[in-house]
């Protein structure tokens, strides 16, 4: 059984015209579809129909989609989620444009997850036959792909257990109150494969979004992204800097509705048998912002 | 143009046309508690003690609840005053981070006041 990746992040925006300008012209996503009050995007190195969905009205997260490797995974995840005590409903092909049958449930943290196996394949912008390294005419930052998200939950430890039991995720790093075996989990970084994290969960209110992130290649690309944010008057929360946790290089910034985005590069390869890194609150500043070594007040308080 | 008076310090900020409260504070050299600056996170709320303002974007119900739309709560990054207003900050005071901008804003405010006080008549070049 395998959840392969976060397939899509579906978020609310207050003003679609401004949001489209940000995600298309600053981030460089490709619009693949629009209907009613929703616009669908993919990034250049993604092949499925969409990875970002914008819905006009409000701010914050609508739902995440998770793509599994086998159609039988849907039954297995439904079984596991039900056993965990979560109510699971079936979703039909077409409920989300170009997405196949799947399941939908609300996590113990009050976030809506959809799990699916099929999506219409559009193909990457470089194709598969003798592909070039990147498309020549990228727009703005030109992010290649959606990468991960950070959500908040009243009980991150419960979400750690939930994602382990239902998605077969494992934690690569955690923030704990202490190194004792009965320590409380303050935050957890979880993945199904070698990607350093696919979903992180931080202590905070249920149902909230901290950020969703786009992948970049290296420091140079992260720095160039920050330059473009200044050119386009995109509010930067912090960065460019490094996270101690994951070792990723980052800029946190906000879309025109106030949803936090991130560009994220690097991060070491994760393996199930690699001993988990544990951070304690005395070093949390360094863990989150490796250079400033202190949290800004927005890190724990600014959510949508 | 409307002005923003900060209670209780009495500082008066001159706004440009269609400028938000938060933008005016920053353009006058001040810093305040801010998050997304785009109306989504609700961190930059202040209280409006007098005067009128409107919002230049739709504001999500998760950011401003029904009561907050009428009780003087002012989401400073999206609030555009339509009259002179007096605001009270929450939690902390503004921090002056660029005194040169403050001087420029002060001159602009005095010019606007002098213009408003001048007797009506044919417009003359300044």
From TrEMBL, chain A:
Pfam families: Diox-like_N (PF22247), Glyoxalase (PF00903)
Gene3D superfamilies, A to Z: 2,3-Dihydroxybiphenyl 1,2-Dioxygenase, domain 1 (3.10.180.10)
Family matches, as InterPro entries: Catechol_2-3_dOase, Glyas_Bleomycin-R_OHBP_Dase, Glyas_Fos-R_dOase_dom, VOC_core, Xdiol_ring_cleave_dOase_1/2, XylE-like_N
Membrane spanning residue stretches: none
Nucleotide-binding in keyword set: no
Keyword annotations from UniProtKB, A to Z: Aromatic hydrocarbons catabolism, Dioxygenase, Iron, Metal-binding, Oxidoreductase, Repeat
Its EC number(s): 1.13.11.2
Catalytic activity: catechol + O2 = (2Z,4E)-2-hydroxy-6-oxohexa-2,4-dienoate + H(+)
Molecular function terms from GO: catechol 2,3-dioxygenase activity
Names of required cofactors: Fe(2+)
Enzyme category, top tier: oxidoreductase
Location of the VOC domain: 5-118, 145-266
PROSITE patterns recorded: EXTRADIOL_DIOXYGENAS (PS00082), VOC (PS51819)
Subunit and partners: Homotetramer.
Family: Belongs to the extradiol ring-cleavage dioxygenase family.
Protein's name according to its UniProt entry: Metapyrocatechase
Organism: Phycicoccus sonneratiae
UniProtKB/TrEMBL annotation, chain B:
Any Pfam family hit: Fer2
Domain of life from the UniProt record: Bacteria
Domain 2Fe-2S ferredoxin-type intervals: 2-93
InterPro entries the record matches: 2Fe-2S_ferredoxin-like_sf, 2Fe-2S_ferredoxin-type, 2Fe2S_fd_BS, Beta-grasp_dom_sf
Protein name as it appears in the record: 2Fe-2S iron-sulfur cluster binding domain-containing protein
């Amino acid at each position: 059984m395998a959840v392969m990746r976060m397939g899509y992040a579906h978020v609310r925006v207050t003003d679609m015209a401004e949001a489209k300008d940000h995600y298309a012209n600053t981030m460089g996503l490709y619009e693949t579809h629009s209907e009613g009050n929703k616009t669908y995007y993919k990034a250049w190195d993604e092949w499925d129909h969409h990875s970002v969905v914008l819905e006009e009205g409000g701010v914050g997260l609508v739902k995440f989609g998770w793509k599994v490797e086998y159609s039988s995974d849907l039954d297995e995840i439904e079984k596991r989620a039900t056993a965990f005590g979560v109510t699971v409903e079936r979703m039909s092909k077409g409920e989300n444009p170009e997405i196949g049958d799947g399941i939908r449930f609300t996590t113990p943290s009050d976030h809506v997850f959809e799990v699916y196996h099929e999506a219409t394949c559009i193909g990457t912008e470089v194709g598969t036959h003798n592909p070039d390294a990147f498309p020549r005419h990228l727009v703005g930052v030109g992010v290649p792909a959606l990468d991960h998200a950070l959500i908040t939950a009243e009980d991150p430890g419960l979400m750690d257990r939930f994602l382990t039991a239902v998605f077969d995720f494992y934690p690569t790093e955690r923030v704990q109150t202490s190194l004792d075996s009965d320590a409380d989990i303050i935050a957890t970084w979880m993945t199904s494969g070698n990607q350093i994290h696919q979903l992180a969960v931080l202590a905070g209110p249920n149902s909230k979004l901290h950020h969703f992130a786009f992948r970049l290649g290296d420091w140079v690309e992260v720095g160039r992204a920050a330059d473009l944010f200044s050119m386009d008057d995109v509010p930067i929360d912090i960065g460019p800097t490094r996270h101690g946790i994951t070792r990723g290089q980052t800029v946190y910034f906000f879309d025109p509705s106030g949803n936090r985005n991130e560009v994220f590069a690097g991060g070491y390869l994760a393996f199930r048998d690699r001993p988990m890194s544990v951070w304690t609150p005395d070093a949390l500043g360094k863990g989150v912002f490796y250079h400033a070594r202190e949290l800004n007040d927005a890190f724990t308080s600014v959510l949508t | 143009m409307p002005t923003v008076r900060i209670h209780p310090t009495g500082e008066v900020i001159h706004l440009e046309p269609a400028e938000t409260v938060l933008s005016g504070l920053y353009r006058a050299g001040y810093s305040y508690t801010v998050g997304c600056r785009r109306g989504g996170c609700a961190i930059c709320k202040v209280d409006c003690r007098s005067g009128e303002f409107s919002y230049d974007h739709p504001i999500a119900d998760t950011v401003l609840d029904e009561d907050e739309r009428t009780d003087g709560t002012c989401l400073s990054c999206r609030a555009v005053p339509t009259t002179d207003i007096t605001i009270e900050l929450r939690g902390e005071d503004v921090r002056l981070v660029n005194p040169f901008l403050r001087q420029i804003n002060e001159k602009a405010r005095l010019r606007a006041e002098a213009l408003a006080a001048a007797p009506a008549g044919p417009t003359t070049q300044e």
